[in-house]
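Below is how a single chain appears once it has passed through the pipeline. First comes the sequence as given, then the structure the pipeline wrote out for it. We keep one example in the README because the format questions we get most often are answered faster by looking than by reading.
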Amino acid sequence: MELSRKIQKLYTGEALNSLLSTYFRWRRPLNAKKMTEFLNSKGFERIRAKYQDPEDKKGWPKYVEAEERLELAIRQARSLHLDRCTGLGVLDIGSGAGYFLYVCKQLCHAVMGLDLDWPSMYGEMFQILQMPRKVWRIEPFRRLPDLGRRFDLITGFAVCFNSHGSDRVWGPKEWGFFLDDLTKNLLTPGGRIYFELNPEPWGYYTPELADYFRSRGGDVEGKRITFRK
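Resulting structure:
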C-alpha cells in the first residue's frame, strides 16, 4: 500500500510539489512569532489591549491574537504558492485585520485590502502595517470601485459578502455579476480568483451553484473555489 501511494504521488506530481514546498519553506522562511514581535514594536499591544475580549471567542475580537492568526495566514499564503514568486498584485476582499496581506507583503507582493469600516480595529491594524485599504460594502449587482490598478490574485477567506448566514445567500446570478466585474475590471490577464466559502445549512454551495462555478471554468473543491482568467 505504501509503495502504491508513493508511485501515485510520482504520477500526480504530489512528490514534486511536496519537494518544492519544503524548499521554499527553507528558502523563504516566515516566522509568526517574529512577525508578532515586530507588530508589538509598532504599537500592536495598544490595539490588543483596547479590543481584546476574553468572553468573545468567535467574534471579531479573536483577531487580536496576532501570532495565531499569522500562522494561519502563512499557511494560506504558502498553499497559494505565494512564496514561490514576488511582485504580484494581491487584493484581499474582506481583508479584516490584514494578517494575510501582511504575510504577502513580507513575500514582496504589492497588496491592497477591501472591507467595511467596522470594526475600527481593522483600520487601525492597516495603519500600523502600512498597507492600503479601500472601505467598501459589497452588494449584489453593484460594481466594485475603481482601485486604480489591476491585480494578479484576488482572494477572499471565510467569505461573508455573499450574504452568508442569511436567507439571501447569493446564487448564480449574483455570483455571475460579481465574477464578471472582477474579471473585466480588476483582474490581470492570466490572474487568479480564489475564495474560501463559509458553510450554509446545505453545505458550501447548492448543486446548482457548484455547476455554475464549474461552467465558468472554476475549480471547485470543498470550500475552495478558484478561477483563472
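The mean pLDDT is 93.

See the next section for the split statistics.
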